[in-house]
Amino acid sequence: MAGPNREQLEKRKLQAEIDKIKAEQREIENRTRFKVIAYLLGGIIGSGTVISVISPILTSKAENAKIEAQALRMKSELAEAVNDTTKRKLILESQKLERDKQSLLVANDSIKTVQDQLIKQKEVLQTRFAKLNKEYLALAVQSQRTEKEKHKFQSLAIQADQAKDSLTAQINDLRAQRRVTEKRGEDIASKDFSVDDGRFLSVDESKRMIIDKDFFDRNLNPDGKGIMHKYEYRANGEIVFDGATSLCWQQSGSKDRMSFSDAQEYIADLNRLKVGGYSDWRLPKLVEVMSLMESRKKGDLYIDSIFDKTQKWIWTADLYSTSRPWDVDFYGGYCVIYGPFGGNYVRAVH
């Protein structure tokens, strides 16, 4: 523990002197009281005794006044000392307060600097937050889009599976038909179909013919423009004559779909009945039927509206193989290889 400082020691010293003076003053007062009592008893003691008592009393009063003056002087010095000490103390405290003030000013500047830095960091964080929030919203939108696409892909996958099953069933049916066709291939090859000028055409030959003639085919020549027809009705509307090719066509054709073999019988009936006044009706070649193909649909079909719309698919006289004739699909806008036992319509030509 620290000892008393200088100020405290001086204060204690002054207090000790004051206590000493007070003690001397009390002693004088006691002696004075004693002498007064002796004076009052002077009549008993005697005049000489009274004089001897008065003299000390006077002396005591002078001493008492001297002591009181000394006491006042000591009190004044003590007050001045206390005032000086207090003043020094106040000066020291004032200096300390000034130092504290300067420290606070420095600290305040530091706090302001830190505050400015924090404000800048806050602005940076707000900017980053806004950017992150924007990215989050974008990710949320992308997530929703991804979820929708996921459902769409799942739906497409289900449709693909269904289509796969359907194609598998069709492939199995075609394989079964092929087995039947192979068994009857020799009979079909030896049978006279009465196909006038029909010939065997490969896919490449058919494609080359269609492109060379600029016929439209949605699969083989989608940019084809076709030809400019010059159609006119003949034979009371039963026949459509095309001046561009000089071919006469049935305006309608068979009302029902039939096999390739039945198509030959249908042609034979037309010639026997001399429909339209002609007896040279025949199945058209692939090149002849493709000349009817329009580059855009006229209603539901890729054929001029002058013709009946019933005959969406028609047989041709050309063959891909002995068991697979070519036919033309006016609904789909292309030619295709078909089995002889399938069903197509007939539109005869002469």
The total count of strands amounts to 6
Proportion of residues in helical segments: 55-70%
Structural class of the secondary structure composition?
A: mainly alpha
Alpha carbon gyration radius = 68 Å
The best one-word shape is rod-shaped
Give the distance, in angstroms, between the N- and C-terminal Cα atoms: 138 Å
Structure, described:
The chain has helices at 6-40, 42-45, 47-190, 203-212, 260-273, 286-290; strands at residues 231-234, 239-242, 247-250, 313-321, 324-329, 334-337. It is mainly α and 350 residues long. The chain folds into 2 domains: 6-112; 194-337, no CATH class. The strands form 2 sheets. Strands 1-2-3 form a 3-stranded antiparallel β-sheet, with no helix packed on it. Strands 4-5-6 form a 3-stranded antiparallel β-sheet. Strand 5 (324-329) and strand 6 (334-337) form a beta hairpin. Helix 1 (6-40) packs antiparallel against helix 3. Mean pLDDT is 79; it is low at 43-47 and 180-196.
